[in-house]
């Protein structure tokens, strides 16, 4: 149970939530995923105006990396929010809000990867619905966080009390210090998450998207703006890089402990996957082309065999043993 009877003068630091290494690793990972998504989405416009619209072979490695980042971002969002809710009775509103911003960063990054890899996800119905379920869980957790933050603002929760006290705070202890803009911003964020989830669901499940390239480009720009806004908000509010709005009793979030260094070292893992792909130790499916959704492999005439079947693969079928 949260102790809501005594308002402490300050809160202890929590480097596992807002430490320098944690914030840097989350931001760098999101930036890499956004850049990879842009490198796959933006060239679609150039290829659509040429006579050779097939994706280049180099996109295979980028798609493999981006697929890993996509899985990582959705699981990071679910994981950090789950831990935050479990620790609501002891977690301050300051750290609770930082977790929410980091989850918005991961959600925006995942949606950006979804825009770039939607045709790859549509290959397998089971995996597509599994991702859909994870997106719903992430949305439910994000909305719960938003409700907690909104309740804390409405009740005027003192910054040093646990976030769970927003539901049990006595009237005499309320200290309303925020204005209407904070309420509106929180409500708009919650509603925006629901709208984006609905659009992402339509985009993921629909096999015949209209204005496909326009949706990709506009959506990528919007997700990048949300990710940048969340990252800037976290950096300005954190003790490690900015000025927190609550007194913190120590400087633990600025120190580089083992956990902070480990978060940065985890950024090297994708490089291992690249090396394995280049050496042929990992088989990667080729990129899905738009034509594969509308052109059959064989429609009854031998002359119309799909040109993607190369002469080598055809000869291998008739070559005598």
TrEMBL record:
Domain of life of the organism in this record? Answer: Eukaryota
Bilayer-crossing regions = 20-45, 92-117, 129-150, 183-205, 217-236, 256-278
Keywords per UniProt: Membrane, Transmembrane, Transmembrane helix
InterPro entries linked to this entry: Elsinochrome_Biosynth-Asso (IPR053018)
- Name of the protein: Uncharacterized protein
Top-down, what is the taxonomic lineage of the species of origin? Eukaryota, Fungi, Dikarya, Ascomycota, Pezizomycotina
